[in-house]
Amino acid sequence: MSAKVTKIGVLTSGGDSPGMNAAIRAVVRTALYRNLEVYGIMRGYNGMIEDDIYQMGSRSVANIIQRGGTILKTARSKDFYGEEGRKKAYENLQKRGIDGLVVIGGDGSFTGAYKLSKEFGIPCTGIPGTIDKDLYGTDFTIGFDTAVNTAVQAIDRIRDTADSHDRLFIVEVMGRHAGYIALHSGIATGAENILMPEVTTTLDEMLTSLSEQEKRKKLVNLVVVAEGYQPDPDKPELRGATEVARIVEEKLKGLETRLTILGHIQRGGPPTCIDRFIASRMGYHSVECLIEGRHNVMVGILHNNMHYTPLEIAIREKQKIGEDWLNIVKILAS
Ligand code: ATP
Question: Where do the domains of the chain lie, and which CATH numbers do they carry?
Answer without folding.
Answer: 7-143+271-316 (3.40.50.450), 145-267 (3.40.50.460)
